[in-house]
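A quick aside before the break. I want you to see a complete sequence-to-structure record at least once, exactly as it would be stored in a machine-readable document. Don't worry about memorizing anything.
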Amino acid sequence: MNVIVAHISLNSAGGGELVCLSLISVLRKAGNKVTLVTVDRTDWGYLRKIFGEIAFPDREFYLLCSMPKTYFIMLHSVLLLIFYFAELFFLRLLRKGDLLISTCGEKTNSIADIVYVNGIPLRCASFLFDAGIKWKCYGRLYDLLLKVVDRFNSSLVIANSKFNKCMIRRCMNRDAWVVYPPVNIQKFTHVGRNRDRENIVVVVSRFLPEQNLDYIPKLARLVRNSNFLIIGPSGTTSKRTLGKLGKMIVELAVEDRVEIVTNQPFSKFLEVLSTAKVFLRTMPYEPFGMSVVEAMAAGCVPVVPRDGGPWFDILNQEEGKYGYSYRSLKEAAEKIKLLMENESLRSKISARARKRAMVFDTSLFEKRILSIVDKVCSRKFG
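That is the input. The structure line, written in tokens, reads:
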């Protein structure tokens, strides 16, 4: 078949972008011709640097060579969204390709034949308890807009976790299949048995406001026997977050124990995971968390918020078995201190976490995706 895979932009190099690239690989290995459609041109060299070996589509189409620079992150996001909607409508209107798959289901769950939802849908913002009034209003308005769009096309929806499936059912009254994101476990298992580890807490994240990275310098003040390393991709939309984070690190006088590293190759990421003891997530309501699984496979013990996919799906809501969860900074600090001070406990949890990571291996993603594609094609073409 000729399959079109649409993604708003791959240049942010996050978990959703890795899912898109993995989907392209799976479809091509199954003998399909794949066309990638994005808003801006993909920087393939940058993606190879961040992810290592990646799959390429047979063809590529994009609207802009690069997004116009804007000072406001919100304006940049809105422009991307408008262009993405325009592309999807154009593809649907002209009936391009045998199958249209969107891997940005958090933006819109309609228009394509299959929609993969990587994040909490924008229209669900009003259902999050701690969302501000502004975001609740945005979520409600966006939901009303998409209800109109939903009437023109009904897509098969895939959620990236059971947690996200519950969110979709709750705010959209839609059922969804669950297909966990692909994690190439084999890339990390060879460093998982490394016992020569330091008191390092590693945080892998994009530098965006919703990641709650201001937690890190605050935690560093509470956990004085550990160093904190924040590593992740950085772009034009990261400058404000990086600036605020750097300022807070200085104000709290933790420069000697908090380090920020941006746009490093995959080898550096692997090196960090092989020497750290604890892997920390700070983003609330995270739908899944591929980096959590990667860190577990590499021997790190995860400490995650008790309100998203890392807790519900990855740790299976079992405190102290594969890792720990927290509801407050104080609780997170206590869990990190415990792991740093009790090496026997950390070692046992690390061993269980490595085995648990195998549940999310990329081979399972491939089987589930191809099975769903077959079902949709049977329904569409008979």
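Two observations worth writing down. DSSP finds 14 helices and 13 strands in the chain. Residues 2-181+361-381 form a domain with the Rossmann fold fold (CATH 3.40.50.2000). We'll return to this after the break.
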